[in-house]
Write a structure and sequence with these properties.
By secondary structure, the protein is α+β, with helices and mostly antiparallel strands. It is about 35% helix and about 20% strand. The structure holds zinc ion (ZN). This is Fe2OG dioxygenase domain-containing protein.
């Protein structure tokens, strides 16, 4: 087997994204330097439920080093202070970029007037089809299996969104694009591979998408994708991609910058645009051969979602006619990313790591058999 032909490079591309800006930095006045040694008898708080830019464990560890006057302040105060400290360790270029992105979002939010205010926060009954809602309510594997198909290992497809919601989201994106054109506002596109489309987080949908991830995707990923951080998702990047003859036409073979990707077709009328999947791979094995059982092609259906690991290699075939919009939610886990940086073997999810491990086991068993034979002679 070889890589799919897609007219572009034959190397798998890592799709990049703009980062999420940090919370407000605040000033803490004098005496706000860290202690040189930890205050061991101070019991640090738990930060794992807070939306922080860095792993919550860093905050728990750093708390014993806080200056005395901060130790009894609120958890939010302490977290803010520590974010401030951690930012000093970011390179200058990163700080400037974060600051610029914050400013960019502020400009959009204070000038753009939404068309459908009601889709900026989650209204479950208006957003989702009843079968999906019921499965989420139960949050059990058997319920998910009832409404979701798994046509190939690790790819789940299911009916998710109401047609009415899809229409509203499409018209909101159209409305936003018109505003962009009228005001000549220069917007950032969703990633390095799409020239069209918009980042939903940049024009006010960040909170809504956060809830979508936490309340409607995490219950599923916790069951099916736990080995790639599926139970510790803590940030997202949400965007719309547009395909068609006057838009992006296709998307080359790549992996996403996510642990879990939710890809929902919103419509409208189109032909072509099938997704092709070719197995899950770790960084090291991203360009290794595809095994025959890993080949899977999927045709989009409006309102239907595909849920897969970000490391599941894929691409989109040309949308040959019409106009197609998809909502993409990249879900990430900072805990998983940190753990991954200390590991070398990913045989629980990388197809190639698994194949190599099996091969080693086969050789080892064969050697043992040989040895036994030799001894019995
Ligand atoms: Zn691997």
């Amino acid at each position: 087997m070889s890589h799919p032909q897609n007219g572009s490079s034959d190397r798998t591309h890592q799709q990049q994204h703009p980062h999420v800006p940090p919370p407000m930095l605040s000033s803490y006045g004098p005496n706000s330097t860290l202690r040189s040694s930890p205050k061991r008898d101070h019991n640090p708080e738990n930060y794992d439920d807070m939306r922080l830019q860095f792993n919550h464990l860093i905050f728990t560890s750093l708390e014993q080093y806080l200056p005395p006057h901060l130790l009894n302040r609120s958890r939010e105060d302490k977290a803010n202070y520590m974010v401030n400290i951690l930012h000093r360790y970011l390179p200058e270029s990163e700080r400037v970029r974060i600051q610029k992105h914050k400013e960019y979002r502020r400009k959009i939010l204070s000038n753009y007037t939404p068309l459908h205010k009601e889709i900026y926060s989650v209204h479950a009954e208006n957003f989702f089809v009843p079968s999906f809602l019921q499965a989420i309510k139960e949050s059990r594997e058997v319920g998910f299996r009832r409404v979701m198909a798994e046509p190939v290992k690790g790819i789940f497809t299911f009916q998710m969104l109401q047609p009415k919601f899809c229409e509203k989201l499409i018209s909101e994106v159209d409305h936003f694009e018109r505003w962009v054109n009228q005001t000549k506002f220069r917007i950032m596109r969703p990633n390095t591979m799409n020239q069209y489309g918009a980042v939903l987080d940049d024009f006010g949908m960040e909170t809504m998408l956060d809830r979508l991830m936490n309340d409607f995707i995490l219950p599923i990923s916790r069951v099916f994708f736990t080995e790639v951080g599926g139970s510790t998702l803590d940030s997202h990047h949400g965007f719309i991609v547009e395909y068609g003859t006057n838009r992006d036409v296709e998307l080359g073979f790549h992996v996403d910058d996510s642990e879990i990707t939710l890809n929902i077709c919103l419509g409208k009328e189109f032909s072509g645009g099938e997704l092709f999947f070719r197995g899950v791979r770790c960084d090291e094995h991203v360009n290794t051969e595809t095994q025959s059982e890993e080949i899977f092609d999927y045709s989009h259906v409006p309102g239907h979602a595909v849920l897969h690991r970000g490391r599941h290699r894929h691409g989109a075939r040309p949308t040959t006619s019409g106009h197609r919009l998809n909502l993409i939610l990249w879900c990430r886990s900072s805990v998983f990313r940190e753990m991954k940086s200390y590991q070398r073997n990913f045989s629980t999810w990388c197809g190639e790591c698994r194949r190599k491990k099996k091969e080693r086991e086969r050789i080892s068993i064969a050697a043992t058999k040989q040895e036994l034979l030799r001894m019995s002679v």
